[in-house]
Amino acid sequence: MASNPILGTLLHAIGGVSASTCYLPFEKVKKWSWNSYWLVQASFAWLVFPLIVGYLTIPNLWGVYEEASNSVIINTIVLGAVYGFGGMAFGYAIKYIGFSLTYTIAIGLSAVLGTIVPLIIHGTLMEQFTKSGGLVVLFGLLLALFGVAICGCAGYKKDNDLKLAKAGNLGSFNLKKGLMLAVFAGVFSSIFGISLELGAPVAEIAGKYGAGHFEGNANLLLSTLGAFITNFVWFTVASIRQKTIGELVAIKTLGVSIWFRNLFLSILTGGLWYFQFFFYGLGHINMGKFKFVSWAVHMSMLIFFSYLVGVLMKEWKEVGKSTYTTLVLGLLILVISFVVITYGGMVEN
User: Fold this and answer.
1) For the chain, how many structural domains are there in total?
2) Could you report the per-residue pLDDT of 62-85, keeping only the tens digit for each?
3) Cβ neighbours of 171 (radius 10 Å)
4) Is 314 strand, coil or helix?
């Protein structure tokens, strides 16, 4: 199957746009608790959309799973379930230290661990970087991490600028709790990348069945199934305890238009979350001999576009010139890193 690193990088970029905008619809959800919104979006992001797309793109989907090793299937699902806790911690971290800082720490850590750990597990860490073009890709990877760090610095400066602008009104800001949760979220979120990597044999079987560039949807379904199980159990219990479960069927109480709007926006969130990894799979298969950098590229794209969306949404309007300059520098370094990694992937063996 012919690869195209330029196309692969562009597809990762589309996934990054999808990921960086997936939680924006929640701002328009009315009279629903976070529990209700999360249950609906999680159901579509991690179960409904993966099943539908899997059936449409993988010939004889169940035949693929029957042929795959049970241990591979179980490990992929279990790691997907573990990843589910990372998403929960991510949300709480935002509450304590803000969006920018949480995104950079958690996703930056996820990018590193989700790339390096699978290579260590397979014993191919040195082998991958000694290929033709490997050092170029390594330089691009390090450059991406440096860009992420600069963006994180900009995020930290932004939080300080906004706190000063609010004359000391810190709200629920708690640096210690927030940092702990962000690190926890980063470690557990990286496990999703490891889950996809361990599920790669399933994708290879799907490729034999004629799935082509869509083969990654086979192992993606297993990873998201694990995440769905964790979140469905957790938020169903939380909804029952907090007595919000009734919101999901309270059509008359909320009004038909509000209920359907909430449902649509929650499904939209789920769709945006899922399609980031739909395009991740397409991008991954096109990265050629450097598929292992897909997770780092995807996470860096996610950070890049999340900050860009923040600028477009005027979240950086009140920051100082130094903070804004730091952000632009970080984004520029990320763009350069994408070009370097793509070039490295095009170097012939």
Assistant:
1) 1
2) 999 999 999 999 999 999 999 888
3) 10
4) coil
